[in-house]
Specification:
Blueprint (H helix, E strand, L loop, with lengths): L12 H16 L9 E3 L2 E7 L20 H4 L10 H10 L22 H7 L1 H6 L2 E6 L6 E7 L9 E6 L26 H14 L10 H13 E8 L3 E2 L9 H5 L41 H15 L2 E3 L6 H4 L2 E3 L35 E6 L4 E4 L5 H4 L31 H12 L5 H11 L3
Antiparallel strand pairs: 1-2, 2-6, 3-5, 4-10, 6-7, 8-9, 10-11
Helix pairs in contact: 6-7, 9-13, 12-13
């Protein structure tokens, strides 16, 4: 698919004016629905756009046969993803809600959905963790075979696997270096626009079960709409407005954030040649001065968390995709979350940080045994990138997501295994032996929930 547009790396006067106008509309209470401030467990999230917030866009229309729209699984209230709490509310209100479709909403398409109790059981992973089933064939060129499986749902075989993953947000997409957790929609040489166009097509044919091909005009409109969206936490219940006292939280500053592939890559892949800056986040630096009026204890905690995220070093030795190339490394959180003030990796480098390994598998997820051609045996709940490339070295690798708007879209990681931000911080602390203190963890959570 040839690109029809390019994504700007910075935005000019018109965009700044649009953000200001959007902010005024939100404060005045008459914003279009998608630009309203939505409450979440720790504050409010808000979206601004460089395009039209028109809800007549095909993003909000059913283009398939099962009633689903893009917004069905990418709700602005949930940071343009979906959350278990809201799914449970939707289930209680209407068990025929289009999100509840056996094809990929159930643990297996063959699940019984004839009664309310059966539906609750069939959609258990969706309701508990917000997981959608993704069925993928084992690549024809795979360097591994599926030699055993512990599948609680009986929905896989040696030629195809059912994988259960969180829907990624459909906002802040201009910062992407890979499309989808496993990067399967990122084709070498194709533009971000082209990758998102392909993703919109495949989602329409798959998740929406379309019987006819979506039009080029509809797919184009969806992609352009998505590329205009910029979303971030705008208010914290403890710290107040996240752009107060010279801080740069909230979506307005994010809309103006420059980006290009490799903008802050620690492995030297920045095309400009600029050295890696471990201080990838500078949103709350103004709150680090305890003597500044208006910097409350809650704001100081956020600033401390940002500083820890930027500068606390720890050693990693077993991160396939990174340490197999570099050897053991002393890193900071921003070694992998390097895109300035956004937090994904600025080049496409899928990593295996251990989330899918057997030691971290929970009984509600399958466990697959993959035997590689070289004799290695790997147990995983999700082979990740390997289901795209067929490479044994890619087993368990997924991309790091954009971190803005985290507070609105729990649970975390691709399989929803961290119910809270605290659980996500605890995972990193335990897996890598970082040694965070209790205060460190509280400060990190304060920072992450403010993004």
């Amino acid at each position: 698919m040839a690109s029809r547009t390019s994504v700007p790396i910075s935005l000019g006067v018109a965009a700044v004016a649009l953000v200001a106008a959007a902010s005024v509309r939100v404060r005045a209470g008459d914003a279009p629905p998608i630009l309203r401030a939505f409450a979440n467990p720790t504050g409010q999230i808000r979206t601004v756009t460089t395009g039209s917030p028109d809800t007549d866009n095909p993003f909000f229309r059913s283009l398939g046969t099962n009633g689903r729209r893009c917004v069905t699984c990418h709700d602005p209230e949930d940071g343009w993803s979906i959350t278990p709490s809201h799914l449970q509310r939707r289930f209680a209100a209407n068990q025929s809600d289009p999100v509840f479709r056996p094809a990929d909403g159930a643990t297996c398409p063959s699940d019984d959905v004839s009664t309310s109790a059966a539906r609750r059981d069939a959609y258990r992973l969706l309701l508990a963790k917000g997981l959608i089933r993704v069925e993928m064939p084992v690549p024809a060129n795979a360097e591994f075979t599926v030699t055993a499986m512990d599948d609680p749902y009986g929905c896989s075989d040696s030629s195809k696997l059912s994988l259960y993953r969180r829907p990624l947000p459909s906002t802040n997409l201009r910062f992407l270096s890979a499309v989808m957790w496993d990067g399967r929609e990122s084709e070498p040489g194709r533009s971000l626009y082209g990758n998102l166009f392909s993703q919109a097509h495949d989602a329409t044919m798959g998740h929406a079960q379309a019987s006819v091909e979506p039009s080029t005009a509809d797919l184009d409109a969806i992609v352009r709409f998505e590329l205009g969206l910029h979303t971030a936490q705008s208010r914290d219940d403890d710290a107040g407005p996240l752009d107060a006292e010279h801080a740069d939280g909230g979506p307005a500053a994010l809309l103006q954030q420059p980006f290009f592939i490799g903008i802050n890559d620690p492995l030297g892949m920045n095309p400009s040649g600029t050295p890696f800056d471990q201080r990838a986040f500078t949103l709350f630096a103004a709150w680090s001065d305890t003597g500044t009026p208006g910097v409350s204890a809650a704001r100081q905690a956020i600033a401390r968390g940002e500083e820890i995220f930027n500068t606390r070093t720890f050693s990693v030795t077993d991160v396939p995709g990174l340490t197999n190339v570099t050897g053991p490394l002393n890193v900071t959180c921003t070694t992998c979350h390097d895109t300035p003030n956004v937090g994904n990796h600025s080049v496409s480098i899928p990593l295996d940080i251990g989330v899918s390994r057997a030691a971290n598998r929970t009984p509600d997820l399958p466990l697959y045994t993959l035997t590689c051609d070289d004799g290695r045996v790997v147990n995983t709940s999700d082979p990740g990138r390997a289901m795209v490339t067929g490479r044994c070295d890619d087993i368990g690798k997924v991309k790091g997501p954009i971190l803005r708007g985290l507070a609105a879209r729990a649970p975390y990681f691709h399989n929803g295994s961290a119910a809270t931000l605290r659980e996500a911080v605890d995972f990193y602390d335990q897996h890598f032996g970082i040694g965070f203190s209790e205060q460190d963890k509280r400060d990190l959570v304060a920072f992450l929930r403010s993004l």
